[in-house]
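=== RUN LOG ===
request id: a7f3
mode: sequence -> structure
chains: 1
length: 257
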Amino acid sequence: MPRIEKEKSWPDSTRLALVQKCAKDIEPDSADSKSWLQNYARAHSHRIAFDVEIVERYSAKEDVIVEFGSLPLLLTASLKTLGYSVQGIDLDPNRFAAAICRLDLRVLKCDVETERLPLDAGSCDVAIFNELFEHLRINPIFTMGEVHRILKPNGILLLSTPNLRSLEGFVNFLFRNKAYSCLGSIYDEYKKLEHLGHMGHVREYTTREVSEFLSRCGFRLQTFVFRGRYDQILARQVVRLIPSLRPFVTYVARANK
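=== RESULT ===
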């Protein structure tokens, strides 16, 4: 059985400061991207600080790490600053080309839904696949198969995604007649294809669904890390007692080869 962990209430202060410093150091190539980065950093700095801690817990400095969905570079830059060998993968890294060059980052362009990864088989120790799984709309079997291909035998997959069977997921389903935990309307999520070139959440999943899917893609699940918090006091008390009702999950898995 996979081990169950729960995220702390607050990330390590030095890791949070590191992420916030990287956010200030990253200068996007356009005004629109700058505004997006600022909003993203305000909303996600705590989550990414926890991501840094998870990477440190499950990897070593000598490991070769590949991070999927690298932009806006907050985790990539933070890991690089800590001395990790990290290779980013993104749909359109040119949006942050100047920052990638200035910070000496490595980010390859690839549409992970339709293209083979530009990396050799068995070339990576750790794959970070954070907040992407719920966006896959074409063939997740192909995408996760490519992730499996580039990992070394027993290599680590760190995959985070919303928890459909969370407290908010239950509330939405029972009282709002909506089957999601943290996305907006289905129309709005698909509408993003027209002006962003990619969409929002296709759907969200339960831990059982993700676990079974990863297993059939050649991964061996090791740990659930239940993550995130709610603003309401009652909701906080509930998820403190039942961590599996938290809004997000990181899956720690190893590649069977």
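=== NOTES ===
The chain has a mean pLDDT of 94.
Residues 133 and 161 are 6 Å apart (CA to CA).
=== END ===
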